[in-house]
Amino acid sequence: MTVFQKIIDGEIPCHRIYEDDHVLAFLDVNPISRGHTLVIPKEPAETIDALSDDAAAAVGRVLPRIARAVIAASGATAYNVLQNNGPSAHQAVFHVHFHIIPKHEDGSGLGVGWKPTQPGADTLASLAKEIAAKVSA
């Protein structure tokens, strides 16, 4: 059982921001900026691809509302929404969760370093076709 499941079950306390039948949002106990919030489905799933469409829709319905509240309350000027899947993607708790990470004027928040590539139109077209076929399957 994950720490998030224990929070859902009430075995571990949290600083709750929002809760309904399908979703729980609470402050991260190790925030990287003021207002760092976690939004989790109550459905147990390790990664987003294992999450049911209904649970994903429930999270999607409340994520914007929670983001607005976090930004308004924290005074941030911007924010990131981060969701990691698997150990090599830096997932530490194996229960789907979304981080809302406010970006403040002091620079606190998520630091992101993209390393873009240039695969070319033919490569992108081929990959898009392959992914689209899997979506339909």
Secondary-structure element pattern, one letter each: HEEEHEEH
Instruction: Give the total of beta strands.
Output: 5
The CATH architecture can be named as 2-Layer Sandwich
CATH superfamily: HIT-like
Mean pLDDT equals: 94
Low-confidence parts: none
Q: Tell me the structural class.
A: alpha+beta
Distance between the termini: 31 Å
Spatial extent as radius of gyration:
17 Å
Characteristics:
137 residues, alpha+beta, HIT family, subunit A, five-stranded antiparallel beta sheet, 3 helices, 5 strands, 32% helix, 18% strand
Account of the 3D structure:
By secondary structure, the chain is an alpha+beta fold. It has a single domain, classed as 2-Layer Sandwich (HIT family, subunit A), CATH 3.30.428.10. Helices cover 32% and strands 18% of the residues. The chain contains three helices and five strands, in the order αβββαββα. It has helices at 3-8, 53-74, 121-136, and strands at residues 16-19, 23-27, 37-41, 78-82, 98-103. It has a five-stranded antiparallel β-sheet, with helices on one face. The model has no long low-confidence stretch (mean pLDDT 94).
Topology:
Elements: H1 3-8, E1 16-19, E2 23-27, E3 37-41, H2 53-74, E4 78-82, E5 98-103, H3 121-136
Antiparallel strand pairs: 1-2, 2-3, 3-5, 4-5
In short:
This protein is of the alpha+beta class and 137 residues long.
